[in-house]
């Protein structure tokens, strides 16, 4: 069995600070929303990176003070991923 030593073209990490969200339940909900919106919107950036033989690792840090809904996070995630594609 042959194992590939290549790194994935796109890697991501997510965190929410305890300063504004003391309860783990709230932090985990925001991280779930971030991961889901990333999963849904990453495909265009991933294909762009694979076509150009590039590798990117990003880390999303939620610094807001309020609990937000899926639609707001989804819109912001699309914007961030598009900007990452423009930079590369």
Kindly describe this structure:
The protein is α+β, with helices and mostly antiparallel strands. Helices cover 51% and strands 16% of the residues. The protein has three helices and two strands. The mean pLDDT is 90.
Q: What is the topological layout?
A:
Elements: E1 10-16, H1 24-41, H2 43-51, E2 56-62, H3 70-87
Parallel strand pairs: 1-2
The largest pleated sheet is described as: 2 strands, parallel
Structural Rg: 15 Å
Distance between the termini: 35 Å
Contiguous low-pLDDT stretches (5 residues minimum) are: none
Q: What's the count of strands? A: 2
Outline, from the CA principal axes?
Answer: elongated
SSE string, helix = H, strand = E? EHHEH
What percent strand? 15-25%
pLDDT average, as an integer? 90
């Amino acid at each position: 069995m042959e194992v590939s030593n290549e790194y994935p073209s796109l890697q991501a990490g997510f965190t929410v600070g305890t300063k504004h969200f003391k309860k783990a339940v709230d932090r985990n909900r925001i991280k779930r929303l971030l991961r889901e919106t990333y999963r849904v919107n990453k495909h265009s950036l991933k294909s762009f990176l694979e076509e150009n033989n590039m590798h990117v690792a990003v880390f999303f840090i939620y610094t807001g003070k309020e609990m937000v809904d899926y639609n707001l996070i989804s819109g912001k995630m699309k914007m961030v991923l598009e900007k990452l594609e423009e930079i590369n």
